[in-house]
Specification:
The complex is a heterodimer.
Chain A (H helix, E strand, L loop, with lengths): L1 H23 L2 H17 L8 H13 L3 H7 L9 H8 L2 H6 L4 H11 L5 H8 L3 H17 L6
Chain B lengths: L2 H14 L19 H30 L10 H14 L4 E6 L6 E2 L2 E7 L6 E6 L2 E2 L17 E7 L2 E9 L12 E3 L2 H6 L23 E3 L4 E2 L21
Parallel strand pairs in B: 1-10
Antiparallel strand pairs in B: 1-6, 2-5, 3-4, 3-7, 7-8, 7-9
Classes of the chains: A mainly alpha, B alpha+beta.
Chain lengths: 153, 243
């Protein structure tokens, strides 16, 4: 029971942690969010663990930034402070340099799609937004990354 | 999937997989720290225990001096409750959590007890309000309609426990008052919320209402201890509601 949840969590941790770091630009917040998601899983485990990474990502994001939904409501101009050392780390990576050009909202969606491999429908359900919003945000993000110099984007 | 998407996925995986992970021992949260109030309560309890020991020692000393040896021996019940209180606060604790279920569209308010298998005078409990969408009883608290019937007993001393809930409301008919529900063989095998346990299981499932011992270890939360079996014996085989 507890052991099984712990094993599932440990297996998903590396992938989800890296996704959260990329989305929040803050390793401490990413870890705190995952810790909260672990405890949430103990209390109310996901009904289906086939998409455990998506579940952990959603819960951790929500815990990490309770106001993430507020960010979604207030629009893409709202930016969240990030941790300088994480930004410096990401700046060394090609993808990292592109991600820092985006808002947290855009990063959360782009990382979920291109790193965790979630479909647009799954992202919409996980983050509580319309599928059209996810699609538009991905397009805007790609355009922004392209403008920012990412030839491959 | 468009080639551009595939390229981007490869790029994301290649780069983000380079993000260094925290040390393995930091992946899971550390056990929660005590609140100041709990810490103070613990010190008060320790001080009380020490004072009690001193008083007993003094009584013994003066009792013996007066030739009255009866006054020197503490009663067995006092000794048992002291050790239970001390063991309940010493060392890292565990927790028990699970789903609450009832054969209706609501779950009545209950107190869920973890009662030590070896010593029923050692127990931990939590109260849960009424859960569900049915018309609430005036004056009784109600879970949010979207909530789930769950409970969590925290700070449980490591050991082996039976987990039993007793109704706290005034049901109609009144014979249901104090009705117990428990974590039984039936609950564990036939109606578990554990995704690893198919519910209902394939084939027939025995109505075995015997209690299942739950082992609590330090720093761990035992999950899926579902209190859904209301069909066990009332009184009799179950430990009575602790007082």
């Amino acid at each position: 029971m507890t052991q099984r949840w712990g094993d599932l969590y440990d297996r998903a941790f590396p992938h989800v942690y890296r996704a959260l770091v990329a989305a929040t630009l803050d390793r401490e917040r990413a870890l705190d969010g995952l810790h909260d998601a672990f405890e949430e899983g103990l209390r109310n485990p996901p009904a289906d663990d086939r998409n455990l990474e998506g579940w952990l990502y959603r819960v951790a994001l929500r815990k990490t930034r309770r106001s993430l939904l507020r960010v979604f409501r207030e629009g893409p101009m709202t930016e969240i402070s990030s941790e300088d050392s994480t930004v410096a780390l990401l700046q060394r990576l090609e993808v990292g340099r592109l991600l820092v050009l985006l808002t947290e909202r855009q990063r959360a969606i782009v990382v979920a799609h291109y790193y965790l491999g979630l479909s647009q429908q799954e992202i919409a359900e996980a983050l509580g937004v319309r599928r059209g919003t996810v699609s538009a945000t991905v397009s805007q993000s790609l355009a922004r990354m392209r403008e920012g110099g990412g030839k491959r984007a | 999937m468009p080639d551009q998407d595939k390229d981007l996925m490869h790029l994301f995986v290649r780069d983000l997989d380079d993000i260094e992970l925290p040390p393995r021992d930091m992946w899971r949260p550390a056990p929660r720290k005590e609140s100041q109030l709990m810490k103070t309560s613990r010190y008060v309890l320790y001080a009380g225990a020490i004072a009690a020991v001193l008083v007993v020692a003094l009584i013994a000393r003066f009792g013996l001096r007066d030739g009255n040896q009866v006054a020197a021996s503490p009663s067995p019940s006092a000794s048992a409750s002291t050790s239970a209180a001390a063991s309940a606060t010493a060392g890292p604790a565990g927790a028990i959590t699970g789903r609450l279920g009832y054969g209706s569209d609501f779950v009545p308010p209950v107190t869920v007890y973890a009662i030590s298998v070896s010593d029923p005078s050692v127990w931990f409990s939590t109260d849960t309000p009424r859960f569900g969408n049915a018309t609430p009883v005036p004056g009784e608290p109600t879970w949010p309609p979207s909530g789930r019937g769950t409970y969590l007993i925290s700070r449980v001393t490591p050991g082996t426990y039976y987990v039993i809930a007793y109704r706290n409301d005034n049901p109609d008919p009144p014979q249901l008052k104090n009705l117990p529900a428990a974590y039984t063989q039936w609950a564990a095998k036939c109606s578990s919320s554990d995704p690893a346990v198919p519910s209902p299981p394939p084939g027939p499932c025995a109505y075995d209402h015997s209690l299942v011992p739950v082992i609590v270890t330090a720093g761990e939360t035992v999950a899926y201890i579902d209190i859904v079996d209301w069909f066990g014996p009332q009184g009799g085989n179950y430990p009575p509601r602790p007082r």
